[in-house]
Amino acid sequence: MSSLYQYEEKDGLQLDHLTLESGLRIVVNRHGAELISIARRGTDGNWNGFLFRDGDTGTPAEGWKNHATVMGYFVHRLKDEHSTYRGHPIKGGTHSFLRHKDFGAPAVETGAMTYSIGPGQIEPEEYPFKVRMNLMYSLVETAGIPELLVTFEFENLEPELSAHVSFGLHPGFALSSLKGAQILLPKGTYIRHVAPGNFLSGETVRIDHPGGPMPFKKQDLPGSFILGLDEVPERIFTVEDPGGHRRTLLDYNEAPYLTLWSDGHDFICVEPCWGLPDHEQQRPFEEKEGIQEIAPGKKLTRTFSIRPEVLP
After folding, report:
1. What is the SS3 assignment for the chain?
2. pTM for this prediction
């Protein structure tokens, strides 16, 4: 398996390209370490984009302006954009501070790019303890089929204190038509965390799903569906876009939560999450529901995969 790395500056952005010889390519914007393209080469030799506005470096006049936002060191949002962590005041907007950070050049090895951020790059009011994050995008082949692996690694550099983080990815998958697309969920019991206004009410709803098309109305997607996955044994989700001849298989087996969202345009966000937003009645950061705890001097590593397929 061979791969090619290239660097590009475009529209004021610093972009890293990684291409697998077998026909899978990603482009990452160093601002936010955000994927702006996931593309497969079809049998006709053309590249087919799988993200919303795939490869577009411009800013749309309306609607969602991102491609695949990296979330961390919290997910979704803090109530009124502030909280306390072990008595330290912290603040941050939607999806935390990573999306606004300019990352340095990635460490590049065969088929992989790793973006890192450490305590010296994080303000105390953003996150007050010493935790480093490494985010790796790897292009691999499984049984001859190329796919993208995304790996989050958090290292707690505190010698005596545990550290708390939540994180995930917010990818928007392109659709020729939201109406004509299918979002297929595996069999299991889903726990919906009700969150009017994007903050948890404390109410949950159990949904027994036989497997197949999602049991939610597409017109309700702007309100988000936040789902607990503890009772879903095989967490393989599928986005089918017949009009665009695309299918995307998402292996989220390590993710405890999933969020489904769209603003009504032709895309669907299927987000693996390690954590939940604040409650309407806010709790301290270290007591947030779903928060991940890392022992002193230890690491937390989680991986998921995205397999884009071009259909005939």
Report:
1. CCEEEEEEEECCEEEEEEEECCCEEEEEECECCEEEEEEEECCCCCEEECECCCCCCCCCCCCCCCCEEEEEECCCCCHHHEEEECCEEEECCCCCCHHHCECCCCEEECCEEEEEECHHHCCCCCCCCCEEEEEEEEEEEECCEEEEEEEEEEEECCCCCCEEEEEEEEEEEECCCCCCCEEEECCEEEEEECCHHHCECCCEEEEEECCEECCCCHHHHHHCEEEEEEECCCCEEEEEEHHHCEEEEEECCCCCEEEEECCCCCEEEEEEEECCCCECCCCCHHHCCCCEEECCCCEEEEEEEEEEEECC
2. 0.97
